[in-house]
């Protein structure tokens, strides 16, 4: 069960049941109208980062190339084609169905309580890598097996701290990407990993992913 209210500041008895509702995926949660003062907040504080990682980040930082739109980073048109739009909508449906599962939704709630990446449940790490790989690998429609993902099963069974889901795409699953210091450390770490690949000579992408936030890094 996911806590809903603060024990030290519960809603008044006359409205106690009103805030108990379900979220957008049908799982138990607070109603949108529930005042923040009553909501249970169990989000873990960001972990302390080694200052050297932040220093390295600033040595790599190029203001003119930071915070670019996703389509610019990925070298794609700003407006997707009709075919690509249909593909995007299909992925949205598949991801939505996945997140609607009660065990997944419950784990995502608990993810907020993870103070560092090593506390992320293994199931969620596997899911995170699988979701990113889903976008990068073609969906093949067959009559005997409606949806098949090329190489996806192999990918999710060989997950490491930095997982190369494609020869030129590396993913790093972590927490607290909303915190500037941890975000900088994650970017520094994945760039360091990408540069360790001596045979990578073309455009390479690094993806820092926390379910709640996603950062894409590109190295030419």
Please outline what is shown here.
The protein is built from seven helices and eight strands. It has two domains: 1-41, no CATH class; 49-219, no CATH class.
Structural notes for this entry:
The protein has a four-stranded mixed β-sheet with strand order 5-6-7-8, with helices on both faces. About 2% of the residues have low confidence. The protein folds into two domains: 41 residues, no CATH class; 171 residues, no CATH class. It has 220 residues and is an alpha+beta fold. The chain has seven helices and eight strands; from the N terminus they run ββαααααββαββαββ. 36% of the residues lie in helices and 15% in strands. Helix 1 packs across helix 7. The N and C termini lie far apart (46 Å). 16% of the residues are buried. The longest helix is centred in the middle third of the chain and has 19 residues.
What's the layout of helices and strands?
Blueprint: E1 20-22, E2 28-30, H1 51-60, H2 70-73, H3 82-100, H4 102-111, H5 122-136, E3 139-140, E4 148-149, H6 152-156, E5 162-166, E6 169-173, H7 180-195, E7 204-209, E8 214-219
Helix pairs in contact: 1-7
Features:
alpha+beta, 2 domains, 4-stranded mixed β-sheet, two-stranded antiparallel ribbon, 7 helices, 15% strand
